[in-house]
């Protein structure tokens, strides 16, 4: 019974093929002997398989029309906003870029101010602490010295700033050598950008059916030029800047015309 | 833009449908697509496009449930009003029974089950979408499946003809 309590929490990982050989062998050995756990494993496997083959759900035909109507309404509302509110909204959306927080502009402003204050405080604290620590500038590039890196396996939000409740605060152990993590970061970012470029190129390839020959030629020339820029750029941040330029160009090509049509000519 | 919609409409609507229920899925899916189209120009590419869209969908669905729960002050997450499939269908098709059990789970469990088991995403992708650790993701999946087994009753395998 004690063994069952140890094994059952591992069954999910075992059934999904995520246990290493040795651990998998222990679970398999127990399942051979224990009918109750074998039954649990069978049920869980049947459930997992059942979930995997659930039929896709088709959206109603009215969904696309609803999306277009909401887009048009949102753009009309944008156009009616005073300029200062549009500026505040842009700034607030930048602060909350990867988050979905449907809160009004003023609380966003307050939250942004708090985050900014916390960031300044943290940088000040780190600079103060660095004064009291041995100089490690020979171990990592100076530009990376202030970068916050989560420990392996710890996930951080895409662009969530290091706020007062963030994971990667100044509580990180001072003696942990994060050089390897820091050095691997540019490669991870570049790989992510490359994946996005590939996805956007696929979308652009489908969208180009509706373009004129001139638009196609201009698009191809621009993409070729930007790709050339990526190839020529030095690895690291220069290359990432060039990749972001291509991403922006692709987004512009895909989004611009469709949004004008979708909004009924409002914009 | 319409092509992007067609590429993701089933995934977005399917997730919304399974997290918030049939009656409100369209509203949530609309919010997601508006968010996607208005945010695409500022999407910085720090994650895959699909990960970003899944994250918007999960966040939209969970926010919607929270708002609905506050509005109606219903217990749990407000899915108690979901219509159960007809009894004959429930008894005859495992899919219907699974969908019905799924609707009774807490929203967080539904999200991880749909992402990992229905959509087939890896733990790494689920963790990126749910903005949690991979370990948390795995333990949530284990608990969610255990709760599903309880809801579906014993001997699921035998009833679907799976003998091993």
Detailed description of the structure:
The complex is a heterodimer of chains A (267) and B (164). Chain A has helices at 2-15, 21-33, 35-52, 62-80, 83-95, 105-131, 179-207, 213-232, 237-262. Chain A is mainly alpha-helical and 267 residues long. Chain A has three domains: 2-52, no CATH class; 64-176, no CATH class; 185-262. In chain A, helix 2 packs across helix 3, helix 5 (83-95) packs across helix 6 and helix 8 (213-232) runs antiparallel to helix 9. Chain A is extended and about 70 Å long. Chain B is mainly α. Chain B has one domain (2-152): RNA polymerase sigma factor, region 2, helix turn helix motif (Rna Polymerase Sigma Factor, Chain: A, Orthogonal Bundle), CATH 1.10.1740.10. In chain B, 74% of the residues lie in helices and 0% in strands. Mean pLDDT of chain B is 81; it is low at 74-91. Classes of the chains: A mainly alpha (267), B mainly alpha (164). Chains A and B meet through helix 1, helix 3, helix 4, helix 7 and helix 9 of A and helix 1, helix 2, helix 3, helix 5 and helix 6 of B.
CATH homologous superfamily classification of chain B: RNA polymerase sigma factor, region 2, helix turn helix motif
Average residue pLDDT of chain A: 70
Quote the beta fraction of chain A.
Answer: under 5%
Summarize the amount of helix of chain A as a percent range. 55-70%
Q: What is the highest CATH level, the class of chain B?
A: Mainly Alpha
Attribute tags:
heterodimer; A: 267 residues; mainly alpha; 9 helices; 67% helix; B: 164 residues; Rna Polymerase Sigma Factor, Chain: A; 0% strand
Short characterization:
The complex is a heterodimer of chains A (267) and B (164). Chain A contains nine helices and no strands. By secondary structure, chain A is an all-alpha fold.
Mind sketching the topology for me?
The complex is a heterodimer of chains A (267) and B (164).
Chain A: H1 2-15, H2 21-33, H3 35-52, H4 62-80, H5 83-95, H6 105-131, H7 179-207, H8 213-232, H9 237-262
Chain B: H1 2-20, H2 22-39, H3 49-72, H4 87-92, H5 94-104, H6 107-118, H7 123-130, H8 134-152, H9 156-159
Helix pairs in contact in B: 1-2, 1-3, 1-6, 2-3, 3-7, 6-8, 7-8
């Amino acid at each position: 019974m004690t063994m069952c309590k140890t094994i059952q929490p591992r069954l999910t990982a075992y059934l999904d093929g995520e246990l290493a050989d040795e651990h998998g062998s222990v679970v398999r050995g127990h399942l051979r002997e224990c009918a109750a756990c074998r039954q649990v494993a069978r049920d869980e496997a049947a459930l997992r398989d059942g979930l995997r083959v659930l039929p896709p759900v088709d959206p109603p035909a009215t969904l696309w029309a609803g999306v277009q109507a909401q887009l048009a309404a949102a753009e009309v509302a944008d156009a009616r906003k005073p300029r200062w509110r549009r500026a505040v909204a842009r700034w607030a959306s930048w602060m909350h870029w990867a988050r979905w927080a449907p809160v009004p502009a003023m609380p966003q402003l307050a939250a942004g101010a708090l985050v900014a204050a916390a960031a300044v405080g943290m940088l000040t604290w780190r600079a103060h602490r660095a004064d009291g620590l041995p100089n490690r500038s020979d171990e990592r590039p100076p530009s990376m010295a202030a970068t916050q890196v989560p420990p392996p396996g710890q996930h951080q939000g895409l662009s969530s700033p290091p706020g007062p409740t963030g994971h990667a605060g100044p509580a990180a152990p001072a003696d942990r050598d994060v050089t390897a993590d820091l050095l691997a970061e540019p490669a991870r970012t570049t790989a992510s950008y490359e994946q996005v470029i590939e996805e956007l190129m696929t979308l652009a390839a489908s969208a180009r059916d509706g373009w004129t020959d001139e638009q196609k030629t201009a698009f191809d020339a621009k993409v070729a030029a930007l790709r050339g820029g990526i190839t020529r750029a030095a690895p690291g941040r220069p290359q990432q800047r060039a990749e972001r330029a291509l991403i922006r160009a692709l987004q512009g090509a895909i989004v611009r015309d469709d949004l004008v049509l979708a909004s009924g000519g409002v914009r | 833009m319409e092509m992007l919609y067609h590429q993701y409409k089933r995934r977005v609507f399917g997730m919304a449908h399974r997290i918030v229920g049939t009656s409100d899925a369209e509203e949530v899916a609309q919010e997601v697509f508006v968010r996607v189209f208005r945010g695409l120009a500022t999407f910085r590419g720090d994650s895959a496009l699909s990960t970003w869209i899944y994250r918007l969908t999960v966040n939209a669905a969970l926010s919607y449930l929270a708002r609905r729960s506050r509005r109606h002050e219903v217990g749990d997450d407000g899915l108690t009003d979901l219509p159960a499939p007809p009894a004959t269908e429930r008894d005859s098709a495992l899919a219907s029974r699974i969908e019905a059990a799924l609707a009774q789970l807490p929203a967080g469990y539904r999200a991880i089950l749909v992402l990992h088991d229905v959509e087939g995403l890896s733990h790494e992708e689920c963790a990126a979408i749910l903005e949690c650790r991979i370990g948390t993701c795995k333990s949530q999946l284990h608990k969610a499946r255990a709760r599903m087994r309880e809801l579906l009753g014993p001997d699921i395998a035998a009833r679907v003809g799976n003998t091993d």
